[in-house]
Amino acid sequence: MTTKRIDSERVRAYTQALMDAASAGGRSERDLQQLRHAIKFSPEMLGTLADMIDAKEDYLIDKVYAEFRDRLEKGDFAISVDVTTAVPMDAELRQMVTEKCEKDLDRPVYIVEHVEPKILGGIIIEALGHRRDASIRTHLVNVRKALSSSYVGGDE
Q: What is the pLDDT of residues 88-129, one digit of tens each?
C-alpha cells in the first residue's frame, strides 16, 4: 500500500471521527473553525490539551488560559521541567531538584513530576529540549553495552 493511499485513508478516518463528534454535539460549524485554528497549535499545546482531556480536567482550560495570559503580561516565564522518578518524590527531593534546576537554568522552574517504575531508580530531568538521564535502567543498559562490545586495546 502506498504512503499516499495510507495518508488518504487516515485523513478520511480522522475527518469522520471529528465529524461524528461535531454532529453528535450539534457544533459542526464551530468545530470546523476550531480545526482551522488548531493547525497553528504547537505540538506542546496540543499535547497539554490532550493530557487535560485525558485526565478529565478540560474544565480547567478557561482558568489555565487566564493564568497563562496573566503570567505573560507579568513576564513570569517559569520553565517547565519534566522530572521522572521510579517512585514519587518527597518534599525534600522536590525542593532539591527545583533549586538545582533554577540554579542551572537561571530561571524559575515549574516541576512536572512523572513516576515511571521501569527506570528502576535514579532520576531523569528534561527541560528546554535537553535530557539528563541518571536512571538506574540507563546505567544498566550502558554497562550491558560496554560488556558486550569487543574490547580493543588496553594492557595485555
A: 999 999 999 999 999 998 888 989 999 999 999 999 999 988
Q: May I ask the CATH architecture of the domain 77-148?
A: 3-Layer(aba) Sandwich (3.40)
Burial track 41-78 (b if 16+ CB lie within 10 A, e otherwise):
eeeeeeeeeeeeeeeeeeeeeeeeeeeeeeeeeeeeee
C-alpha cell at 78: 517559569
In the chain, what are the domain boundaries?
40-76, 77-148
Q: How far is CA 125 from CA 97, 111, 119, 128, 131, in A?
A: 9, 10, 12, 10, 6
Distance in angstroms (rounded) separating the CA atoms of residues 121 and 118: 8
Q: Strands, E, within the chain: which ranges?
A: 79-85, 109-115, 122-127, 130-135
Q: What is the largest CA-CA distance in the chain?
A: 78
Residue 152: count other Cβ atoms within 10 Å of its Cβ.
5
Report how far apart the first and last C-alpha atoms of the chain are (Å, whole number).
56
Give the Å distances, CA to CA, from 35 to 18, 54, 121: 9, 19, 42
Residue stretches of the chain with pLDDT short of 70: 1, 75-76, 150-156
